[in-house]
Amino acid sequence: MKKNLLLLLVIAFFSVLVLAACGTSDETDNTNGGSGAEETEETSEDAPEETEEEEAASDGEVYQIGATQIVEHPSLDAAFEGFQAAIEDAGLEAEYDFQSAQNDQNNATTIANNFVADGVDLIFANSTPSAQSSLQATKDIPILFTSVTDAVESGLVESLDQPGENITGVLDLHPDSVERTVEFIDNYFEGATIGLIYSAGEANSVAQIEAVNEAVEGTSLSTTEATVGNSSEVQQATTSLVGDADVFFIITDNTVVSALETVVGVAEEQGIPLIVGEPDSVQRGGFATFGIDYHTIGYRTGEMAVEILTGEKTTADIPVEVPPSMQLFINKEAAEAQGVEWNEDWDEDAEFLETAEEE
């Protein structure tokens, strides 16, 4: 009996030890297999994402862009906004040093030289004078221009297909724009004398005036001209054409466009239709234009900048481009104010814009 009792006690003792060992093992498994396993999975899922974010942050270069513009007016401002939008849409970070030359070529030269001294990554040149100053200042820093009418004649590029080593961009004049505008005037204002007001100091403007005079040849139309040296002379120049001009045609001359409201005032007071060079000027009181959207050409220039900043292309790889399309824009309110007799053809042919309220 004693042997049996002792045997039972030994069996019971080892049973307790085995159960205790199993219990400890289960608890350990639950701990590691529960929250511990989840922690392992979370770490495995999160680790790559955190690494990518860290890599993106470490690779997120902030590009320094010098933006030079001859003067501030709605068309040029829209082009700069389009340029910035393209950079942002591409996911690039950029800091802009925007400088307006206040319609002074000397200021444009100073601005360009300062950008070169600052070592900016790229120069956005908005207008012909701004692009010319930038090209004189550097042959190394990439220059992207827009709001330029004739890049070859103004000396910016040798040809549109082969622009050069450090400059290219998008023009602001559709190849058919002047011809279509003259054709429009000839159709609806037959026999009219067109009053042209422009700055003879802008190569941009001289090229357009020459194009207008060439387009007028063989039509019922003729032209008369007045030139200005700065925006304060625009009203006097406009008034000087009253009595000689039946229609005003204001091309994309930065000096005159920056003071367009004075031309609108004379046109309304004298009942002279005012044809303009782009849609923004229609919204400022012009009657009609065969124009392009400046935000669009600025955006396309920004896309070119992205290709250059990311090293995908160089300026020499990108031909100068022209606006992809144009159309007839008309401001009915301005037409009425300028005594224009309405033609039903325009109801189908034109996109209508309203005069924008001054901010």
From TrEMBL:
Pfam annotation, one family: ABC_sub_bind
Start and end residues of each stretch annotated as Disordered: 25-61
Ranges that cross the membrane: none
Name of the featured protein: BMP family ABC transporter substrate-binding protein
Originating organism: Gracilibacillus salitolerans
Highest taxon listed in the record's lineage: Bacteria
Annotated signal sequence range: 1-20
Stretches with biased composition (Acidic residues): 38-58
SUPFAM superfamilies (UniProt xref): Periplasmic binding protein-like I (SSF53822)
Keywords: Signal
InterPro entries: ABC_transpt-TYRBP-like, Peripla_BP_I
